[in-house]
Amino acid sequence: MSKQKNALSKLALQKFKKNFWGVFSLGIIFCIGLISIFAYLFAPDASKNANQMHLSIHSKAPGFKVEILKMPSDIPSNQNFLSKLFFGKNNTDTEIPIQSYEVNENILTYVEYASDGLKGLHKQIKISKFPNSNYKEFIDTRTFVFGTDKYGRDYLSRVLIGSRISFFIGFIAVLISLIVGLLFGSLAGYYGGKIDAVIMWIINITWSIPTLLLVIAITIALGKGFWQVFIAVGLTMWVEVARVVRGQIISAKQMQYVTAAKALGYNDYRIITKHILPNIFGPLIVISAANFAAAILIESGLSFLGIGAQPPMASWGAMIKDHYNYIILGKPYLALIPGLCIMLLVMAFMLVGNALRDALDVKT
């Protein structure tokens, strides 16, 4: 039995490898996952949530360059390497975009950046304010690859860090939906009768409520926040898993291997977990891939409505909400860039789901 199962797994893997778009999409998902985990390592602005604002350079076009003067702070930063890597750096320094600067004796005179051809303010600072009087280390030319948002934050950094919300909500929502859906679906399909009737009644009631409306209700009940959105999305997606598991178990429990397991005296828990569920895992993988895409879209919609991840946390949906009016103001890329990122990630999950469906289809 195990040899046959291994042979079928290898055959499914070979069929999946032959699907170019499935493998390509899986590579995209892997790259986005890697970027989301180590976002602060790739982001030009490694401050927490990439929230370093420079209002004087707001809404600048991609490729914009400006000199940045960093004013050192006396406040110590008690952060270890792992904290900076996964949660961003607590930036205590003050960053000032400047147009020009000059040094006379022990005084650094600089002109603050001003757009639209205006002249910035002239300000001075003593060279001794910089460590070892080495002011050159605190002045650098910065390039904003994706430009800046309406608050003057580095848009590329916001996009990279915003991938965390969209990517991880898929994993957590699918995990919650699998746990709840497997529990209810297994009980309904295996025992039937009144248990099946009650669970199906709950499923039908939940199914009849619009998904976005149900998520909004759960989010309001749990409160606005990062984890609340993840839980809310997960609790609305379990019905699809439960229906699939119920149908598969109703068919599988008539099989001879289940009858043999009952004859050997195995308890119901072992029969369900050790014998039935491993044999119906194919459809679950396919529906989980589809739920990944659905969870990303739901979270984006919630963030767009303002009840998803809260500012200053970066989120692709929230970035679209903040800049959708720029589409008619001549800077559509501020809304299109996160929109394209959402489309790319959702399409990748859908293509992987289609490839898995074809690979696990025993009829082909």
UniProtKB/TrEMBL annotation:
A Pfam family that the UniProt record links to this protein: BPD_transp_1
Membrane topology reported for the UniProt record: Multi-pass membrane protein
Record field: transmembrane: 20-43, 165-191, 198-220, 226-245, 276-298, 333-356
Subcellular location: Cell membrane
Keywords: Cell membrane, Membrane, Transmembrane, Transmembrane helix, Transport
Main localization of the protein described in the UniProt heading: membrane
GO cellular component terms, A-Z: plasma membrane
PROSITE patterns: ABC_TM1 (PS50928)
GO biological process: transmembrane transport
InterPro entries, A to Z: BP-dependent_transpt_permease, MetI-like, MetI-like_sf, OppC_N
Family: Belongs to the binding-protein-dependent transport system permease family.
Protein name: ABC transporter permease subunit
UniProt source species: Winogradskyella endarachnes
